[in-house]
Amino acid sequence: MSTGPRLVEVRQNVLKQNDLLARALRRRFRAAGVYVVSLVSSPGAGKTTFLEKTLSLLRRGRGLRVAALVGDLATDNDAARLARAGVPVRQITTGTVCHLDAEMVGRALEGWDLAVLDILFIENVGNLVCPALFDLGEAVRIVLASVTEGADKPAKYPHMFSRADVVLVSKTDLLPYVDFDVGRHAADVRQLSPGARLMQVSAVTGDGMQAWYDWLQLSLPG
Amino acid sequence: MSTGPRLVEVRQNVLKQNDLLARALRRRFRAAGVYVVSLVSSPGAGKTTFLEKTLSLLRRGRGLRVAALVGDLATDNDAARLARAGVPVRQITTGTVCHLDAEMVGRALEGWDLAVLDILFIENVGNLVCPALFDLGEAVRIVLASVTEGADKPAKYPHMFSRADVVLVSKTDLLPYVDFDVGRHAADVRQLSPGARLMQVSAVTGDGMQAWYDWLQLSLPG
Asked: Which of A130, B48, B146, B217 minimizes the number of CB atoms within 10 Å of its CB?
């Protein structure tokens, strides 16, 4: 296929451009004093439910000023769900594009005063492949891995897991009903991203959520 | 981002090239009398377990000559699992590429006598976005949708569901433990792909699998 090499070249240019824009975003976030946390996972791993609970608790329970950007191919369902937490939410609709990039994030932030925020969450498109290579200027990247997906996903999607700062094993309330080898999953995550923090959460039962809030609060700069 | 329009143009060329190659593959499959079934889903929706049972049953129980091509970013775990069914299996490793394309399929088939096969399955990379636009020359495209992912996935990934010939609602053994609105899911699938066949299966309990084998066998040409 003669278009192959040209596509690779264009992709490399796109990634290089993205890295430059992400670096500028990161400087901007630091200057504004906002801690930016990105979330990525397979479709249906529970990002939105998890984020809805997190936004609500951080605002009401811990008095933090939080906001979210939400990426989706279509619909603003997730943005509508997150807005119920009573925090500012903006939607990024990507159409057929399989990931967010730094330019989309920059555009979505236009006119937003970041200095009034403590934490900005960025929920990526549900996809374990494409978002891996695109830096969004975040301080920390979180990969949600649902127990229903099986323990083999780190080995099968190594680019994503090797770039994770935190791996949240989600839907742990379903552990009794599925075949998920917690030890194998943890070992594979540690091999791909030796410094990554591993936590288990269930947004449904609340198990592990306090430990997550504590970890996040302790990670905030200053 | 100045690379934007150029990327779109290159992408359109890639899709156009892919369509030509897929058309040639489809002619080749028809001429060889092999029925080609592609499978796509989110990571961890159960494609491999489902396919493992299907290959084994079709070969042993119904005397069909079946084979499989398996796409993955990394590892040949799935190909090794499928080979246990005692049928020919070939692996396509895509690296960072988020989907199979017709060229990869054509290359993987080199030296393979398709005329001795009744059904060839192609298991795509686990991804609800990128594989949507790439025709692989298949006769029928199957989307697996796990009940653990939630009923909102058709609306959120419309490109994939609108191109489905069959939607298999998988992991129905977990229905008692998750919040999955079967009616809403079915209605959204019907709106996106009015002719699509909807079936429910659990590869773990075997529920719905006989109906799936029957449907597949009745779909075979000739």
From this structure: B217
Classify the complex by whether its ipTM is higher than 0.85, answering yes or no: yes
Contact B171 A150 (CB under 8 A): no
The DSSP 8-state label assigned to residue B177 in this structure reads G
Residue B86: C-alpha distances to residues B16, B54, B110, B202 (Å): 37, 12, 20, 22
Tell if the CB–CB gap between A126 and B156 is shorter than 8 Å.
Answer: yes
The string of pLDDT tens digits covering residues B24-66 is 999 999 999 999 999 999 999 999 999 999 999 999 999 999 9
Residue A122 sits in a domain whose CATH number is 3.40.50.300
Interatomic CA distance for residues A33 and A39, integer angstroms: 20
**Contact at CB, A96 and B153, closer than 8 angstroms:** no
Name the nearest CA neighbour of B158 among A79, A69, A90, A75.
Answer: A75
Neighbours of A198 (CB within 10 A): 16
User: How many Å separate Cα B72 from the centre of its chain?
Assistant: 13
- Chain A CB within 8 Å of residue B181 CB: no
**Which tokens hold the place of B153?**
């996935």
- pLDDT digits over A33-62, tens only? 999 999 999 999 999 999 999 999 999 999
Domain count, chain A: 1
Which domain range does residue B100 map to? 4-219
